[in-house]
Here is the input.
Amino acid sequence: MANDKTLFDWVEDRKSMLEEMEQTDFFALPEFVSNNLKYPFFEWQKSALENFVIFDRTSKLKDFPGIKNRPTHLLFNMATGAGKTMMMAALILYYFEKGYRHFLFFVNQNNIVDKTENNFIDPAHAKFLFTEKILQGDTVIPIRKVETFSPHSDGIEIKFTSIQKLYNDIHTERENQTTLADLHKLNLVMLGDEAHHLNAQTKGKKQDELDLEKEMNDRTSNAEIERKGWEHMVLELLLNKNGNPSQNVLLEFTATLPENADVQQKYADKIITKFGLKEFLQKGYTKEISLVSSTLGKKERVLHALLFAWYRHQIALKYGIANFKPVMLFRSKTIDESKADYSAFLNWVENVQADDFSFLTTFSTSLNDSDNANEQGKTRTEQALKFMQENKFEFVHLANWVQQNYQKHNVIITNSETNKTKTEKTDSETEKLLNNLEAADNPIRAIFTVDRLTEGWDVLNLFDIVRLYEGQNGGGSNKKSGKTAAATVSEKQLIGRGVRYFPFSFEDKQPNKRKFDNDMQHELRILEELFYYTHDEQSRYITELKNELRKDGYLPEKDDDKVLATFKLKSEFADNKDFRELLIWANKKIPNPNAKSNNADSLQANPQTLSFQIHGNQLLQETQFTADENDETARQIGTQNNFTQTIKMSEIERHIFNKALHIKGKNSQSLFHFDRLQSKLNIQNRNELQNNLLKDWQIEFLGLEQDKQVRPDDKLAGCLKILEMVEKHLNESDIPFIGTKEFTPKKLWEIFGTPKQKWVKKDDVKTTIATQNDWYVMDNFAGTSLEEALIQFISARLGDLKSQYDVHLIRNEEVFKLNNFADGDGEGFMPDFILLLKDKQKSSSNGVNDFLHYQIFIEPKGEHLVETDRWKEEFLEAITAEYGKDKILQKDTPHYRLIGLPFFTDHQKNGQFTKLFPLGETLLEK
Here is the structure.
């Protein structure tokens, strides 16, 4: 390796060169990959795959002369929640097209294996990653879970295993199991998840003799697992086929690469992509963390968290967010304490009274008050109590809600009752519930745990983590080594599982991305925050936890990195009646009158099949079917069988179908409320829906016993899923919304008169920009260097501008929106700046006898976003073409003009913005 260059450095340089040479086809992803995945790629996933393709298609790397003469071994360093499993699915398809058929997926924890199986194998699972049928041309490619590989496979075979089990399989002869000789006959692609557990031989210098004959079990040390399982078995025996020629591939995936210098050096020629947590957080695809520190006792801390669970539930109801179920997690120090806390919680909930919440009325002395953006517990508590007061909720309502929603079947503990060991163990049914918490039919709302869920757990709807024990974590920190207590690191990892964003729709904002970073007081912001509750002992613990969170990018480097800034009109403008009443023009997004909506005919013409994995007695809570907890069948939930039965909707018993409709139609706003259903589909009764419109829709029930009998509760659950598909189909249309070309005015004060508060980076605040420029309307400024450059650009031309116009510049703090009418989709757009110019000389042409007012939209744009946001620039051009010249906005206000300028970018080499400033194309015609 030359000049200490890493593989990641090389591939990024290579990609830049290919882009400059316009040879992006070299790293284009095969259509077979993208066509057979259920979801599109995020930008960082696409970038990572492009890096991989560049490496794979390059025959020789001069900086790494031997890398192509050995088996491919790469590492994808991607943040938790960034979609590593999706990457694995894409790479499986990539290597299948190259001729590989055998895929070995391994981790070091069985629960991660179980979770991942569903993503790859079960089409009925909510997180299944492939399309319903994987197609290569017209051929359907089967994908199978196997225990032993077949030598001549016609599809994708995946063996899921743990590192321990794989080691035991190939070192101990047993009937019908994988042998090393079998594996050496095949070309394997190995996928190693959370690979940072598997590098002990690199991290530890001391090398003892390995006892290769001894099997690994639950008592095997991590160091032995990593040396025998990873370095010896995976690298020596499998990847390199024990020194024989090998075309095997090893792809590692990790969120955290150890900081150890030896490990960093070892992986310098293997890391193919880096997308860390800091980048992930900055892009807005996670929840924000809020540390809620108080002196409340254990019971009050629990009740405080339950207040927020109720508050989030109410906010979701208010804004019509479907299937919202906030989950909370309670962490204890030991298994025995967890069991005791679990029992105490159930007792508290069963007997909770309104008076139990009375401490909230005097909470101010118990909660820490902070100006830190990541410590907003007190502020949010005030908001929740204000919401209760304004909506006339009493504590008795809160107590009743808690009793109804946190009964025993809604609460889970991550330790099996039959487990007698000192390590937490969960049964298979508990694992299923934990790995599918977002599902509408999952009743779990609260989890009690110690360490079981710190890794390999995917959850989107976890909003509250309560640390039930007090005091510093065992062992403390080692000041000499700088090493933090292992329990504190574990808590950081647990928080890492919870920051995954719960997607929801609001206006035209992106569902899976934070929407209110610049509107922190919005009610829905509470759905974008993860609360971590601790007892404040004013000890090193809080400081240690913050330091650990900062280390991985969960929190800013310093407590004061972000400040709460206020932006309002300067007093001289706020007090000026003429300025307050200036007109600001905007258009609206409206339903597309020409949209082709799906209807009754399209239901009949497009019948669909639902593949539904039965769940035995695990029933939807909302069906009110209950299984006796002592019933033997109920305790054997999840038994997998291989028989299937396909039933058409017209063959489902009428009372079951009607029950499903009743459940779905409880809400008067539901599509399945019969009045709405009748209006939408022009039907007279429910029977017409089942036996006419949906007669060819069908459910394929999977996992049946040999008699292929489908239980009524499984039919009901299947019908509910079918109705979800029906609702989604009927709500879709080709182009549902458009931006209207009709612009209407509001007085400037109505839009910009209310002060706006938001958290901003401290270094971005440049109040002097506001105070030194009398033409800048707001009293504060916080923005990027590019936005500063725009203000300097205008300031340099101010003399010429003021000779012709009255000049005022407003920064839009996300309070003013336009809606695209240029390409017909109505997508919203908030231009960063609005420049207001008013002619100093009256115009007396084209029916105007007044001073012309120009409302000019300006959008600074970094070069890396220009292409992505090209539609915005085209929309701005369309505004100028439509309203920049002589077209009258309204009859009684003929003297207003609207202009959109090209992007103000990092590089003004083409001079387009300069050429057209300030009046766009109209300037060229003057």
